[in-house]
Design brief:
Strand content: 25-35%
Order of helices and strands: HHHHHHEEEEEEEEEEHEEH
Number of helices: 8
Largest sheet: 7 strands, antiparallel
Radius of gyration: 20 Å
Strand order of the largest sheet: 1-2-3-4-5-10-9
Number of strands: 12
Amino acid sequence: MLGTALALMLTATGAAAETVSLDTLTKRQFISTANARCQWFDGPTTLALKAGLLQNRNAALNHGVAPATVYGALDRARTAAWRAECNNPALVKEVETMRGAYRGFVAQNRLSLPGLRSEWLADRTEQNLSKWRLVQYQQTGNVSMAFGLYGTLKGQNLSVMAQFNGEQPYAARLIVRDPKTRATGFINREALAVSAQMPKGLSRYDLSFAASNRRETQIALKNTPRVNLAGFTVDGKFAGHAEKRDTLRFDFPMNATVAIGKLDPREDVVVAFEFNNGTQYARFEAGDFVPGLVFATLPSPYGQ
């Protein structure tokens, strides 16, 4: 079963997301922990392995497995892994299979990581073009937004883009639960939305990252079919080109990604937009942000 672990971990298809196995989770944790001592994998493969393990943990939590059960299973796997024999023939065979799975995984161009209320989309195409590399889109009423990593494969910014009608925000802040003050977060099961009220579970004592700049751009903030220059999809259907609209962009410090990575996948990441007449709070789902980030930043097998 471990032989296909890496491939299953990071394929992120809807079918894979529906399968939650604590047995698989503990085996993946076992390999990941043992690798720290046995040094089977290189840096990128190790990152992919850890990201996939995190994705599998998130799937268990999203499907209602009690956190105590999930983390207890992971702790037992870590303890057992320190007694692993690095040259065990069965383990060595599984390691070689995982290396092959990694090569297949990293050759993918795009990835969809579904959550409970939204999804993260990762894109490794057109390496030198600035575009969304990891993004969560949101449409709330007449407000369109996107949050994630924007840039080339060599360098991205943690950004939010928004299209508001009427008055425009002059600044933005990213708000994330501070695990030092509260070990567990609030799971808000309400639909993602924009509100004038501070979202439940967050307060002024949590981490706040001010945007470094405010700029205007033109972009379509929605997940549209991929088309060629003539507007046709890969299966030959005409879809046209999504209309680009006036859009505000705010960039946040990249160290905020570390804070997001410490959240429960069911928690909210909040962007506070500052208007002259008050604050509007937009909620995004933490979800599989870290697995998506790893995929978007892994070395490309195709070179530059």
